[in-house]
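Memo to structure team: turn this sequence into structure tokens by end of day. - J.P.
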Amino acid sequence: MRIGLLVNRGKPAARRFVTGFVNWLSAHGHEPVLTPDTARAFTLKVARLPDAEIVRSVELLVALGGDGTLLRAARLVGPRETPVMGVNLGGLGFLTEFSTAEARTGVTAFSRGQHREERRMVLACRYGRRRGFALNDCAVNMGRTGRVIKVVVRADGEFVNRFSGDGLVISTPTGSTAYSLAAGGPVVVPTLAAVLLTPLAPHALAARPLILPADGTLEVELAAGSEPATFNLDGQQVWPLTPGRPVAIERAGFYVRLVTPAGKSWFGILRDKLKWSGSQV
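Reply from structure team:
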């Protein structure tokens, strides 16, 4: 089986783990494929392709690093829906659910068709001629002036609210444990179909997070006279925004197929990552 590896080489554990993992894959009949830069950096004699070409030629893409690495992998895969498996090389890692100790078992299960995977919804965004998508979230953020911005939101053409503050996070359920959570948004089961709106430091106590249906079109735009702002997609793309020109956000016509560890529950991951101390008794 041909397996692509997308590696965050900046992680301290990357060199040692990736070298051993590549050797194990080869010894078990798999063909690991790396980018030329990673193969050179780790002195590995493997198939080498640019990352955009890797996703077109593999049956499984393994993201080795943190959640940012997996978000990059999801962006490369896009509508192809190549399964993505995340291996955590250190850090919080809600998306990179496999530990380094579980990575080999995960690949073996996948190769035998005994793996578990979840279909995670994606947001498709349009702004003029620009197109992009987000697995976690997209956000309207204040610009260089650091001054309050005003964001108008409409759902299927109906006015929702005008939010004044530092910005607004538009999140998928998968992204509910990321930027939205840090801004006070709710935690949502990641396999649900919904869109979360979480204001950033709003200048009104009544401006609370909202959960909207996934089917429909959401429009966000800077109000007339607002300070400059940007539109950030999963921390991977940034678009400058102009007042009066809306960004259209919809549920994408494809999913990210996320390979997850057998025997782990989402609630168990929450308890571990968020350090919940409650017990059943």
